[in-house]
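Researcher: Here's a chain I'd like modeled. Treat it as a single chain, no partners, no ligands.
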Amino acid sequence: MKVLLVNGSPNKNGCTNAALEVIACELNKCGVETEVFWCGNKPVMGCIGCGKCRDSKRCWYDKDTVNAFLEKVESADGFVFGTPIHFAGPSGFIKPFMDRAFCSKSDMYKNKPAATVVSCRRGGATAGFDDLNKYYGISNMPTVPSIYWNQVHGNKPEEVFQDEEGMQTMRRLAQNMAWLLKCIEAGRNAGVSLPCEEPLTRTNFI
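Model: Modeled as a single isolated chain. Structure tokens:
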């Protein structure tokens, strides 16, 4: 079992990474392999909705980190997407990154658990948290909970580690992710079938 943790901060070793490293450490203790993927600090192009990736599962634009991430999706069993909070929302790196990583690619993610982690100095955490959670609900992905909304507070990594409730929330998130992955594996081994899929219906409200 492997969980891919995505660092959507332009600061590779900042507060968001501190939270993800705590989660990764706890997942490793639970016997789950982890990898942290950094979106980078170069501009990430937004999705133009061309649909070319529907069959190839790659984006036509290949000058940022999106396709490098997509190459890792199939081998991952679960995901944690992390972002700093900028103006009460996700960073300008993770948002276009996820738009292109998810657009027309729901089949790559379905039935794989996911979670969001947000890092902020003081406020705006829940708005950014809610924003990223929308990607999982539309992609048939179980969303992993914790004992509080998955947020940490601090202006520096060392301050994040002082956020005792935040650290506990990260550890429980990792434990719940590991538990759910093991439940899915146990169900698969016991012959529990995935839900039947109806043909997709699209309704436009006009």
